[in-house]
Amino acid sequence: MDGLKSPPPFETEWTETAWYLVEKLRTKSPLIQCITNLVSMDITANILLSSGASPAMVHSIREIQDFTPRIDGLCINIGTISEDWLPSMLSAAEVARNSSIPWVLDPVAVSISEFRMKACSDLLSMKPLVIRGNASEIIALSNAFRLENSKGADSSHESTEAIDVAKSLSVSSGSVVAVTGAVDYVTDGTRVIGIRNGVPMLQKITATGCAVTALITAFVSVDPNRALEATACALSIFAVASEIGMEVAGGPGSLRMHLIDALYSLDQPTVRSRVRIFRV
Ligand SMILES: Nc1ncnc2c1ncn2[C@@H]1O[C@H](COP(=O)(O)OP(=O)(O)OP(=O)(O)O)[C@@H](O)[C@H]1O
Ligand SMILES: Cc1ncsc1CCO
Ligand SMILES: [Mg+2]
User: Fold this and answer.
1) What is the ipTM of this complex?
2) Does the CB atom of residue 207 touch ligand 1 within 6 A?
3) Which end of the chain is more exposed for a tag (fewer CB within 10 A), N or C?
4) Is the pLDDT of residue 256 over 90?
5) What is the pLDDT of residue 69?
């Protein structure tokens, strides 16, 4: 028992659910292994720490068999993937799958090369609990073909354009799929949940998408049987923190700092008044 009262019912009481998970995360402090890109490591570790989770950026193939069985959640992000790192990703994902440890995939810029697409397709066979990407990434992954005019890590599509493909990707992969953008969407192939929180300035800080994927990993690690709900709450909480941070930030640099501070000190009244999660 973790000492917390039973969770409130989902679907109707999103704000209560979000707060329940914030508290559970702070209480349990899950150990989250990240095999993530070199750009995102710092902000990702800091977002996890400020949420109450315990981050570990461990990616050597020599350490996976010893370390990965002991973690509570695994985040794999292909942002700066190279041939050296792919075996570690596949090995960690396999350990996670075989040990029923929830793991989450961020398919950064999946459309820019055959290598990335094949890496993602191999990783998908290890059954991630959640896939989180921007609209272009989810569209590319779902269609499994290269997009013309791909801009790399940034999205050139609106999240609403990706709802239907997210649903089909969820059905074909068996994973919950999250698409981020001005409005975020999460689907399990049947239900679609929208999240209307956040500030456009998030796009001017590198790796906020990577960081929110890691935060999703932490949320689902404390409630893996409700991955759809935990993913929606993680997206909302991260974006609520950005709204509070933006009230005092002067630009992307200080927003990054204030976002981390706001996530650290989020309280229940703030969550109650700001979480905007809805059924689509
Ligand atoms: N126009 C917007 N308005 C408000 N919030 C936004 C907007 N666009 C993105 N966001 C938020 O920014 C965060 C990152 O999402 P985004 O879709 O930009 O990820 P990404 O492209 O994978 O980022 P990165 O690759 O830099 O990590 C999410 O919390 C998302 O809700
Ligand atoms: C800029 C960039 N390039 C590879 S990963 C990354 C961080 C945002 O995804
Ligand atoms: Mg990204």
Assistant:
1) 0.98
2) yes
3) N
4) yes
5) 98
**238 CB within 6 A, ligand 1:** yes
Q: What is the pLDDT of residues 85-132, one digit of tens each?
A: 999 999 999 999 999 999 999 999 999 999 999 999 999 999 999 999
Query: If you average pLDDT over residues 40-61, what whole number do you get?
Result: 98
**Residue percentage of the chain with pLDDT more than 70:** 92
Q: 220 phi and psi, to 5 degrees?
A: -70, -25
Residue 155 Cα to ligand 2 midpoint, Å, equals 12
Q: Which of the listed residues 34, 37, 82 should we mutate to test ligand 2's pocket, taking the one with most ligand atoms within 8 A of CB?
A: 37
- What CATH number is associated with residue 218? 3.40.1190.20
**Does any domain span residue 188?**
yes
- Domain count for the chain, please give it: 1
Quote the domain boundaries for residue 196.
14-279
How many angstroms separate the alpha carbon of residue 45 from the centre of ligand 3?
16
Ligand 2 centroid to 226 CA: how many Å?
29
Query: 181 alpha carbon to ligand 1 midpoint, in Å?
Result: 5
For ligand 1, say whether the CB of 108 is within 6 Å of any of its atoms: yes
